[in-house]
Design brief:
The protein is mostly helical and 331 residues long. Among the domains are: 86-91 and 116-214, Tetratricopeptide repeat domain (Serine Threonine Protein Phosphatase 5, Tetratricopeptide repeat, Alpha Horseshoe); 248-331. The protein has 16 helices and no strands.
Length: 331
C-alpha cells in the first residue's frame, strides 16, 4: 500500500511536468514541487522505521530520485535546482540504506556512489554526511574495518558535523563501532565518549527525517555493540536495556534489533534460557513483517554462538527448531 501510494503521487508529479512540456512550454518548478517531493521522503523513512529495508522500499526510493531529477527539466531558480539535486541524493541514499539494512551490498555500494555525486551537485553537506555514515556501515558488513573507520571519520569532517553536535555525535559513535571491530579498545571507548559529549550539546532543532532515529536510545544501542565487540558483555546488556527504555514506539525495527543485541549480550554471559526468551520478544516485535537482513544476520550470530556454547542443551535445540525458518528466510 505504501509503495502504491508513493508511486502514484510520484507519477502525478512527472505527469504534470510532461503535460506542461507537451503544451509547448517548459513547466515552472518551484517550492511546491520541492515540498511535495520531500513529503515522499518522509513517508519512505516512516516505512523503514517500522519494517526495515526491502526491495519495495528501494524501488520506491529510486522512483523518487528519478522524479526529482526529471523536474530539473523545468524552469527553476538555481536555488530550486540545488534543492532538487539534494532531494534526489536523499532518495538515492534511502535506496542505498534499504540495501544496507537488507544486506544487498553491491546494490548499496552503487547507490551510495550515486548519492554522493548528487550531494556534491547540491553542495549538500548534510546528505554527504548521511552517505558517509551509510558507507561506514557497508564497509563493516563487507569486513573492511579500516575502510569503515575512514568513512566514519569522513562523516565527522563534513561541515554539518562541525556545525551540529547531533551529526557529530552520530559520526563519533559510528567511528567507535569501527574501532571496536578492529579490536582497538581505547580508541573505541574514546570515540564513544566524544559521541556522548556531542549529544549532550545538541540543541533541539528541525532536521531531516532520515536522522530522526538518532538520539540517546540509538547511542545506547551503538554502545551495546561496541561493548559486546570488546568483550564487555555485562556492559553491553546494560546499554541494551537503556536503549530499550527510551526508544520511541515508531522505531519497531530498531527496537527488534536492540532486543536481539540484548539477547546476544545475555548469551555471552552464559544465561542461555534468558537469552532464548529475549529473542522471542524480538520475533514478536517484527511479527507480520519480513525480518530485515541485518536482523537475520544478527540472529544468525546468536544461533552460531548458542550452539558453540551449548550444542547439546535443550534450550539450544528448541530455539533452532522453533525459529530456524523465520530467521533464515530472505526478506
Amino acid at each position: 500500500m505504501l509503495r502504491r501510494t508513493f508511486l502514484t503521487a510520484a507519477t502525478s508529479v512527472a505527469g504534470a511536468a510532461a503535460t506542461g512540456a507537451s503544451a509547448g512550454a517548459r513547466p515552472s518548478v518551484g517550492s511546491a514541487d520541492v515540498i511535495r517531493m520531500r513529503g515522499g521522503l518522509d513517508t519512505l523513512m516512516a516505512a523503514d522505521d517500522a519494517r526495515g529495508g526491502s526491495a519495495d522500499l528501494e524501488r520506491a526510493a529510486l522512483a523518487g530520485a528519478r522524479d526529482a531529477l526529471a523536474l530539473q527539466q523545468g524552469v527553476a531558480t538555481e536555488r530550486t535546482r540545488q534543492r532538487l539535486f539534494s532531494i534526489a541524493a536523499n532518495y538515492t541514499a534511502t535506496a542505498a540504506w534499504s540495501c544496507v539494512d537488507s544486506r544487498r551490498l553491491d546494490q548499496a555500494e552503487a547507490h551510495l556512489n550515486t548519492a554522493l555525486r548528487l550531494a556534491g551537485l547540491a553542495r549538500d553537506a548534510e546528505t554527504a554526511m548521511r552517505v558517509w555514515n551509510s558507507n561506514a556501515m557497508l564497509a563493516h558488513q563487507r569486513g573492511r574495518h579500516g575502510e569503515a573507520v575512514a568513512a566514519a571519520q569522513a562523516a565527522q569532517s563534513t561541515a554539518v558535523s562541525r556545525r551540529d553536535p547531533l551529526y557529530a555525535s552520530l559520526a563519533h559513535a559510528r567511528t567507535a563501532v569501527a574501532y571496536a571491530n578492529r579490536g582497538e579498545r581505547q580508541s573505541a571507548l574514546r570515540s564513544l565518549g566524544y559521541a556522548g559529549e556531542a549529544l549532550a550539546k545538541a540543541p533541539a532543532a528541525i532536521r531531516p527525517s532520515w536522522i530522526a532515529f538518532y538520539g540517546p536510545a540509538e547511542l545506547h544501542a551503538l554502545t551495546a555493540i561496541v561493548r559486546d565487540r570488546l568483550g564487555d558483555a555485562a556492559e553491553a546488556e546494560a546499554a541494551s536495556h537503556q536503549a530499550l527504555s527510551v526508544l520511541g514506539r515508531p522505531f519497531r525495527r530498531n527496537r527488534a534489533l536492540a532486543t536481539s543485541r540484548l539477547a546476544l549480550a545475555q548469551l555471552h554471559q552464559g544465561d542461555l534460557d534468558q537469552a532464548c526468551a529475549t529473542t522471542n520478544a524480538a520475533f514478536q516485535l517484527m511479527r507480520g513483517a519480513p525480518l530485515p537482513g541485518r536482523m537475520r544476520t544478527l540472529l544468525g550470530d546468536f544461533y552460531r554462538d548458542l550452539f558453540t556454547l551449548a550444542p547439546s542443551a535443550t534450550a539450544a535445540r528448541d530455539w533452532a527448531d522453533r525459529y530456524r525458518t523465520e530467521w533464515s528466510c530472505p526478506a
